[in-house]
Write a structure and sequence with these properties.
It is a single chain. By secondary structure, this protein is α/β, with parallel strands linked by helices. It is built from 19 helices and 15 strands. Bound molecules: pyridoxal-5'-phosphate.
Length: 463
């Protein structure tokens, strides 16, 4: 038996590599673990190739692997797509206030502790007061996400023979990621009763469908599509009256919990939780990380008697949020309560950016690119809200645009930008690679410029 293919032959030992000067700055335990991994990979490689790596190469691999292991995961990115609530990029970026609160809560914190009394307090009370103040609700509850909120509501309100849930045919939606209202209802043991048509449903349709088996009437926000033309959705107040007359609760899954008036930004107003409650809706649920601009959470606001049923349900324990999320949510709600949401919450700061400001930022970047020998244009375009909020609605913006005639392969440049450090995510449309300053924090403009110049140099498109 020849040992010519023995993969261990000529491989340096862990000790030998561990003594390398170039690895001295890596902590001993981490150094050894990383060396072991690199040697294992090399051993596997030598079994199939005849070109063994040199000791220098192995040392370089150890350094690279250790560096990569220290990079934050998921990798932070600069979102230049112009999609503000970008589900693939983690929905809403959090405010400074939220980050500070999360840091404080990561240590010991008075989460379920009454400091004055020195005894157990209520975890829910912290967010409840702010939610009640902001929405006019009697009571509120926080769970893991919007889907969990719907799940908990159904679990708590379906009762014995009362299992029918009445939903308009125009609101049997799929939100994305497989959240389909009919499936969620089936899963929770509800019997779906469809009323009305795709485009028109009236309060009478619900009234006619109510039986002794009806558990609740459910309104679902068509978050990610719009039906246009001859449409009619029932008026909430009218429907609330029908619900009251028949003593069944009217519940609304609102999707994006928009607490502010969007019309001042030229957008179609979204229903707000406060308006729905004022119209007589029993419970409203919405997400924490859509237009609210906070962490992933599901918020339920409404009548105290019904919230109490939810809070006491055994599922509540499985769906409750952790302390860091709660701290982040409370800080986000605090920005609304202090009336500084537009300046403190990134989602709203981006929505509120004026086209003129965006144009100036785009022009400044294009001028600096020109200085590096890169020809880019400032082109008018549109940003979107995204994340299942305000479908079809756009905000005017100004893009930094690189033409296919300048760049050649747009997809290759796009990949290079995404793989760079920091990663920059552009959009490609109609023979242009586009960077939308609206979703880039202004203090990151210099990073975008750096990355772009570097990538263009690597492909020989800049001097
Ligand atoms: C987004 C959305 C959900 C799901 O909320 P998550 O927080 O993503 O779980 C449910 N219903 C509607 C109408 C939505 O728009």
């Amino acid at each position: 038996m020849s040992d010519r293919r023995d993969p261990r032959r000529g491989l340096p030992s862990v000790d030998a590599l561990g003594r390398a000067e170039a690895l001295a700055d890596i902590a001993p335990a981490e150094r050894i673990a990383t060396i072991r991994q690199v040697l294992a990979e090399e051993r596997a490689a030598r079994a199939t190739t005849s070109a063994p790596a040199t000791t220098e190469t192995l040392i370089a691999r150890v350094r690279a692997l250790a560096a990569r292991a220290r990079e934050p995961v998921p990798r932070p990115v600069i979102n230049a797509t112009g999609v503000i609530i970008n589900t693939n990029l983690g929905r809403a970026p959090l405010s400074e206030a939220a980050l500070m609160a999360m840091r404080a809560a990561s240590s010991y914190a008075a989460l379920e502790y009454d400091l004055a009394a020195g005894e157990r307090g209520s975890r829910n009370a912290l967010a409840r007061d702010l939610l009640c103040q902001l929405t006019g609700a009697e009571d509120a509850l926080v769970v893991n996400n919007g889907a969990a909120a719907v799940l908990l509501i159904l679990a708590a309100l379906l009762n014995g023979d009362r299992r029918e849930v009445i939903v308009s045919r125009g609101q049997l939606v799929e939100i994305g990621g497989g959240f389909r209202i009919p499936d969620v209802l089936r899963q929770s043991g509800a019997r779906l009763v469809e009323v009305g048509t795709t485009n028109r449903t009236r309060a009478e349709d619900y009234a006619a469908a109510i039986t002794p088996a009806t558990a609740l009437l459910l309104l679902v926000h068509p978050s990610n599509f719009r039906v246009i033309g001859f449409t009619e959705a029932p008026d909430r107040a009218e429907l609330a009256e029908v619900a009251r007359d028949h003593v069944v609760p009217l519940i609304e899954d609102m999707g994006s919990g928009c607490l502010l008036d969007l019309s001042r930004f030229g957008l179609t107003p979204e229903p707000t939780p406060q308006a729905a409650l004022a119209a007589g809706v029993e419970l409203v649920s919405f997400s924490g990380d859509k237009l609210l601009g906070g962490p992933q959470a599901g918020i339920i606001v409404g009548a105290a008697r019904t919230i109490k049923l939810l809070a006491q349900h055994p599922l509540m324990r499985a769906l409750r949020v952790d302390k860091v999320t709660l701290a982040s949510l409370i800080a986000t709600l605090g920005s609304y309560a202090r009336n500084v949401a537009l300046t403190e919450i990134p989602v709203w700061r981006m929505i509120a950016q004026l086209p003129e400001t965006l144009r100036q930022r785009a022009e400044a970047l294009v001028a600096m690119l020109f200085g590096a020998g890169i020809v880019a244009e400032v082109r008018s375009g549109e940003s979107t809200i995204g994340g299942g909020s305000l479908p079809g609605e756009t905000l005017p913006t100004w893009h930094i645009a690189l033409s296919v005639r300048t760049v050649g392969d747009l997809d290759a440049l796009g990949k290079r930008l995404r793989m760079s450090s920091p990663a920059v995510i552009p959009r490609i449309a109609h023979d242009y690679l586009l960077l939308d300053p609206r979703t880039v924090p202004p203090e990151r403009d210099a990073d975008v410029l750096d990355v772009l110049i570097r990538c263009m140099r690597e492909t020989g498109h800049a001097n």
